Structure formats: structure tokens, C-alpha cells
Amino acid sequence: YKDMLGFARLNRGKIVVETMPSVPKRRWDAFCSFLHLDDRVEFGEGDIGLSGGIQVWEPSSANITTVDMIKRFGGSTSPVAQWPEETTEGDEEDRFDRMERLIEKAMKRMSS
Q1: Is the pTM for the entire model greater than 0.90?
Q2: Please, are residues 37 and 52 in contact by the beta-carbon 8 Å criterion?
Q3: What's the sign of the alpha-carbon dihedral 31, 37, 38, 39?
Q4: What is the pLDDT of residue 24?
Q5: Cα 57 to Cα 30, 62, 96, 101, 110, distances in angstroms
Q6: Radius of gyration of the chain (CA)
Q7: What's the rounded Cα separation, in Å, for the pair 109 and 22?
Q8: 6: buried, middle or exposed (CB in 10 Å: 19+, 13-18, 0-12)?
């Protein structure tokens, strides 16, 4: 099934590539400006991210994350400045994280 989906995407991509030379430059430029790719994409409230993306909203329950994967450090952004050492709070926190993930998996299985 995954191979069929991949093959279909490749065929669609081939059609797009073959069609692109026939699209007028003015229409292509209008399409690109409509996408607002120069605007920054907000990751969260007040967390302005990178430009060049398209923001897609999804329900917060779709992909539950209990740990923030973005590490934020205050201070200088100079490449010369070293990153602060990461503090590990021990195995006890890891055990709670694993237990929490097991509970989430069990809840998903029971709800489906």
C-alpha cells in the first residue's frame, strides 16, 4: 500500500514538473505571493519561527507531546559562545516519562 502511495505521488510530481513550463510567469508569481512564504511561521503563541513555511493547524490531541522538543537558551547567539550544559535530573524522571508514554499508548488502544 505504501509503495502505491509513493508511486502515485511520484506520478503527480512528474505531471506538475511537466506542466510548469506552460504556466505564465505572472500567474506563478501571483501564486507564490499568495502563499506568503516571506512571512514567519509562528510555532506557538509569541514564538515566532522561520519564514518559508505554510502553517497547518491541528487539534492538540492529534499528536500529544509531554516534553518540549525545542530547547530554548537565553543569551548571545554568537557561534563563539558555548551552549550551556544540559542538566539531567536522573533516572527517576526517565521512569516517569516511560510510564506516562505506556499509559498514553494504553489509553489510545482502549479508545480505538
Answers
A1: no
A2: yes
A3: positive
A4: 96
A5: 24, 11, 29, 24, 26
A6: 22
A7: 50
A8: exposed
Q: Which residues contact 43 (CB under 8 A, 6 or more apart)?
A: 49, 70
Q: What is the pLDDT of residues 40-94, one digit of tens each?
A: 888 777 777 788 888 888 887 887 777 666 666 677 777 787 777 766 665 666 7
Q: DSSP string of 97-111?
A: HHHHHHHHHHHHHHH
Which grid cell is 45?
Answer: 503563541
12 within 8 A of 4, measured Cβ to Cβ: no
Element (H or E) spanning 51, and its range? strand 47-51
Label residue 16 by pLDDT band (50, 70, 90): very high
Measured CA distances, 106 to 2, 70, 97, 99, 110 (Å): 26, 26, 14, 11, 6
Residue 42 CB partners (closer than 8 Å, separation 6+): 48, 49, 55
